[in-house]
Amino acid sequence: MTPQALIFDVDGTLADTERDGHRLAFNRAFAEAGLDWEWDVGLYGELLAVTGGKERMRHYVEHYRPDYRKPADFDALIARLHAAKTRHYTELLGRGGIPLRTGVRRLLEEARRAGIRLAIATTTTPDNVSALLQHAIAPDAESWFEVIGAGDVVPAKKPAPDIYHYVLERLGLAPAQCLAFEDSENGLRAARDAGLRTVITVNDYTRTHDFRGAAIVLNHLGEPDRAFEVLSGPPVNGARVLDLALIRQLLSVA
C-alpha cells in the first residue's frame, strides 16, 4: 500500500530547528528588547512541552518569571517579540546554519518522482516555514507542498488534531490514505487523534517521549551511507533508509 500523501511536521522533523535555531532567535529577540530572559538548552527543552512560540513565552513568564511585571500592552509585546524572533530565525537560516535532517531531502525527492502529494502540518508560523523551505531545500520548495497548514490557521495547536484535520480537508483525502511524520509526543498525539499512521524521528529533545502507537520510531530517515536506527517498531529486514518500499511494508502491517 502506497500512501497518496506524506504530511510533515517542520520543527525537529524536517530540520533540527529548535536548539540551534528557534532558541537562539528567541534569545536574540529578548536581548534586542532589553529583557533579561535567557533560554538555555535545558530550559528550552522544558518549554518545548508548550506548542507555539507566543504560548511558550506566556508560559515562561507565568511559570518561570514570577518577578516579571507585565506591562499593560503585554499581548502586543509578545507579538513584537515573536515577530523579532522570526526575523532572527530567518537570518540564521539565510546563513545556512540549519540543514535538513538526515534522509529528508532524499525521501521528499523520491515521493515527488512517484507522484505522491506532499503537505505540511505545523504549529510554527508560515514565515518560519517559508524561510526553512527556501533556504534549506530550494528557492521554490514551497511549491513542492500542495498544502501548508501552519501557525494560527486553526485555533487549537498540537497535541490537538486540528491542524491535521485542516490539512486532510484541503487535500481531500482520508487519514488512511496518508502518512504523517513527527518528532514529538505532542505531534504524535495530534496525528494519531486525526486517524493518521505516524513515523517518528526523534531528536535530542524528544528522545525520551512516549511514542506508543507510532508506526515506527527512528533516529532519522537514513541515507545509503548512514543507516537509520530503529528505536521501536516492526522488523525492517535489513533496510538502511526509510523509502517508499519500507513505507509500503509498514502500512501493510499497520
Summarize the structure in words:
The protein is α/β, with parallel strands linked by helices and 254 residues long. Helices cover 42% and strands 11% of the residues. The protein has helices at residues 18-32, 41-47, 53-64, 74-94, 104-113, 126-137, 162-171, 185-193, 244-253; strands spanning 5-8, 117-121, 147-149, 178-182, 197-201, 216-218, 230-232. Strands 3-2-1-4-5-6-7 form a 7-stranded mixed beta sheet. α1 (18-32) crosses α4 and α3 (53-64) crosses α4. The termini are close together. The model has no long low-confidence stretch (mean pLDDT 95).
Chain-wise SSE layout:
Elements: E1 5-8, H1 18-32, H2 41-47, H3 53-64, H4 74-94, H5 104-113, E2 117-121, H6 126-137, E3 147-149, H7 162-171, E4 178-182, H8 185-193, E5 197-201, E6 216-218, E7 230-232, H9 244-253
Parallel strand pairs: 1-2, 1-4, 2-3, 4-5, 5-6
Antiparallel strand pairs: 6-7
Helix pairs in contact: 1-4, 3-4, 4-6
